[in-house]
Write a structure and sequence with these properties.
single chain, about 800 residues, mainly beta, Beta-galactosidase, Chain A, domain 5, TIM Barrel, 3 domains, 15-stranded antiparallel sheet, eight-stranded parallel β-barrel, 11 helices, globular
């Protein structure tokens, strides 16, 4: 093959190799919508720079007749550059070689294995061994994030806030001495307010040329507003010590954009996570079906070993749930961990015993490559096995779940997008983002990773994610919420009602998504990724689905806190002969539908309430769509007696917490419930490793910090580890009347973990005398808007 034209074309990108780059890519282009191309990388020479201690440059060079080995199969291209010679002062160095092996996948994920060796003794001292990767996003605003390389990995690293950084926008140079940054990712869009494209670079190992794995560094520099990545595998000069030089590493990239085609429409998902009643009842499943559910995710409580395998906690109950769901056409996706041995070794082969391939699916926690970390003699500085993770997830999806099955994946804050472009039906965000996904459209799109694949939102952690305010954000990017049911842990934002008719915030969105039920391979665009979808304001959003039969569903979103007329222009969209156009309204109280008379409209406008959504449906005039519109207009199910009983309990708790009786004295006792769970110690103790702070706000007063609540009661200094309030422990009775002013005072318990707000698990008892007339109070998401704070009133005479 002539090296002058070594170009590989994939559906969404093009990569080129030229002789002057000595085996490294010379160009990488992203194929955007409307036949536009963007060159993300352009290099004139080799990425690799080697320099001897005396200043001699050592350069890889491809001979004129050099031909790499290439093969293609099933959308994957393999390219091997064997034994690339290295030269110094124009002469080839004997037994100095560079080997580069590429695996390029059509979904935008690529890997490069690099091996360097110098075998001719004696060898010169070296002062530079550097990889330089110039990037060019041509975007006014770029948001980026990166990982830090840990000393070791265990489950507590989920909350290791010093090990990852995300949502950075300042274009400042960064240098990391003694460390090869394992991953850095960039997101940008067609305007400063949007995000629609993603690029990330992965470095598996921290290997230096010498024996010290910390004799390395990483640098991010910005040149004329564009980033360049520099990896130095020698930070200070090294000597060969009469040994050959050898070095290896594996690197990779992910590039992509908001998907042009989605395998499934956004599915309507219930996520059942109750650890006290591990399986939903048939009646609850029937109510899920009445709400339009497509998927039921069963969280970890479904299985005997919470950390691994496919043995149900109660096999007969599990199969009852599966069979009941299948009767209603609901897919079942039980919880797994992406790094568990049954996945890594056997691709969850137990799936076929209990679930249906090409229909059911899996929900993977620990789903990113952060759980594929190891340390050995080959990689003494540690290694993230990105490629192994990618291939494991690929086999899990294709061989076990099947093409038409469903796969939801959650990585936590250690995000990598390597599985998103082609394998995942919903990247699950919403847990490690500190509740900021409602701060702006850009922040929501960034943390949802909408630039790489379809998304789903974990609504269990932050109460504000279970309100109507989240709907326009999800509707605009085609994201589906996990409507969570059941109590995972008491007195926390992880405690939810078990009845589907008690959790109804997603109904308006589900009505619109339900119009696409059962469709496949839908074309998707929105105003964040497609310049032809023009909105009247950044506070208006437009998302467009094009179905196989020519039907178009255009969903409008209002991001304002007030009602507004929202307008979206799509220049090519109009009602064709034989089609009807319906204006769709949807809200908390129900739905409505009006047939539009203007069949040539390219401007679509409707009045939307605060944070409201609506849409326009242009569809064939046939029986299929008449039935779907009629189903859309069905009223919401009415709550039954079980649901009403739950709301009665919420009202009872509201009165206990916020309508106290007046007394001369009030005592407080705080405790945390415990639960027999098969979590590893690292997860259990890390989750509860919080300091509880005590604040008060008197009527007509200001919020004041009083002190801390520890195992032994009220404290003026932060508690030590032994003094913290742990599960199964409770404080003695604390005389609040000695700390509070007379009158009504709002008391606040605030949980802090590693210096940041975190889940509160505290339960509070108040009484005028110890153990008499006790008010037993718990956190409830219906009453508390912040996962870290529980409040209640005390009235002192």
């Amino acid at each position: 093959m002539n090296m002058n034209n070594l170009i590989f074309d994939f559906p969404d990108y093009r990569i080129e190799f030229s002789p002057g780059c000595a085996g490294f890519p010379s160009s990488l282009k992203l194929k955007q919508r409307h036949e536009k191309e963007q060159e993300l990388l352009r290099s004139q020479g080799s990425w690799l720079t080697i320099q001897a201690a005396d200043g001699t440059d050592i350069v890889p060079v491809l001979p004129d007749d050099y031909k790499p080995k290439t093969t293609q199969s099933d959308g994957t291209v393999l390219i091997d550059f064997w034994n690339i010679p290295l030269t110094a002062r124009g002469k080839i160095l004997s037994d100095w070689f560079l080997n580069l092996s590429y695996e390029l996948n059509e979904d935008g994920v690529g890997f490069i294995h690099l091996f360097f060796s110098a075998m001719t003794l004696p060898l010169p001292d070296l002062k530079t061994f550097r990889l330089r990767i110039p990037l060019n996003f041509q975007a006014e605003k770029v948001t980026y994030g990166y990982w830090r390389r840990p000393e070791s990995i265990n489950s507590s690293s989920i909350q290791a806030v010093d090990s990852f950084v995300r949502n950075q926008t300042e274009k400042k140079n960064l240098r990391f001495s003694h460390e090869i940054i394992p991953l850095i990712g960039f997101d940008y869009g067609i305007s400063p307010e949007t995000i629609s494209c993603h690029f990330e670079w992965m470095a598996e190992g921290q290997n230096s040329i010498g024996a010290d794995p910390k004799n390395v560094s990483s640098t991010l520099i910005w040149e004329q507003g564009e980033p360049t990545l520099i990896f130095d595998f020698i930070e200070t000069n090294i000597s060969s010590n009469e040994r050959p030089y050898q070095w290896r590493n594996q690197m990779g990239f992910v590039l992509g954009q908001t998907p042009k085609v989605r395998r499934h429409p956004p599915l309507r998902v219930y996520h059942y996570l109750d650890l006290f009643r591990r399986y939903p009842t048939d009646n609850q499943i029937q109510k899920m079906a009445a709400e339009g559910a497509d998927v039921l995710i069963l969280h970890e409580g479904w299985r005997a070993d919470l950390q691994n395998g496919g043995v149900p906690y109660t096999p007969s109950e599990f199969m009852r749930v599966v069979n009941c769901c299948h009767r209603y056409g609901i897919r079942v996706a039980p919880y797994i961990r992406g790094n568990e041995s049954s996945v890594r070794e056997n691709q969850a082969s137990w799936f076929n015993f209990i679930l249906q391939k090409d229909f059911d699916g899996l929900y993977s926690d620990y789903g990113g490559p952060a759980g594929y970390y190891s340390q050995d003699e080959t990689y003494p500085g540690g290694r993230f096995a990105y490629k192994e993770h990618y291939k494991t997830m690929k086999a899990l999806k294709n061989q076990t779940i099947g093409k038409d099955g469903i796969f939801y994946l959650h990585t936590g804050p250690f995000f990598s997008g390597s599985t998103l472009p082609s394998l995942v039906d919903g990247y699950t965000s919403g847990e490690g983002e500190k509740g900021i996904m409602l701060s702006s459209r850009r922040a929501h799109a960034y943390f949802s990773e909408s630039a790489l694949g379809p998304g789903s939102l974990w609504t269990a952690a932050f109460p504000e994610y279970k309100t109507g305010k989240i709907l326009p954000y999800m509707a605009n990017i085609g994201q589906t919420p996990h409507v969570t049911l059941g109590v995972q842990l008491r007195s926390s934002s992880l405690a939810h009602p078990s009845e589907p008719d008690c959790v109804t915030f997603a109904r308006p969105l589900w009505k619109l998504y339900g119009l696409m039920q059962g469709e496949r391979d839908l074309q998707f665009s929105n105003d964040q990724c497609d310049e032809e979808i023009r909105c009247d304001s950044i506070q208006t959003g437009g998302a467009l689905y094009r179905l196989q039969d020519g039907t178009t569903l255009l969903i409008l979103s209002n991001f304002r806190d007030k009602s507004a007329r929202c307008t979206v222009n799509v220049p090519w969209l109009k009602t064709a002969t034989g089609q009807a156009c319906y204006r769709l309204s949807t809200g908390e109280s129900g739905t409505s539908c009006i047939r539009e008379q203007d069949t040539d409209a390219r401007s679509f406008s409707m009045e939307l309430p605060p944070y409201g959504i609506g849409g326009f449906l242009i569809c064939p005039e046939n029986e299929k769509w008449r039935k779907r519109v009629a189903k859309y207009l069905r009223p919401y199910p009415q709550p039954d007696q079980t649901a009403q009983s739950y709301w009665n309990s919420v009202e009872q708790m509201r009165r206990l917490r916020f309508e106290p009786e007046i007394s001369e004295k009030q005592y407080l006792r705080v405790h945390i419930s415990t639960l027999a769970l098969g979590w590893e110690d690292a997860v259990w103790w890390d989750l509860f490793d919080s300091v509880y702070e005590l604040y008060i706000t008197p009527d007509n007063g200001v919020r004041t910090f009083l002190g801390y609540i520890g195992n032994n009661g009220f404290m003026t200094e932060p508690p030590s580890a032994e003094e913290k309030l742990w599960p199964g422990k409770q404080t003695p009775w604390i005389p609040l009347h000695k700390l509070l002013p007379k009158g009504r005072t709002l008391v606040e318990l605030r949980a802090r973990h590693l210096g940041e707000d975190f889940y509160s698990f505290a339960e509070a008892d108040c009484a005028p005398e110890p153990d008499r007339q006790v008010r037993q109070m718990i956190y409830m998401s219906e009453l508390d808007s912040d996962r870290a704070r529980m409040t209640f009133y005390v009235c002192l005479s």
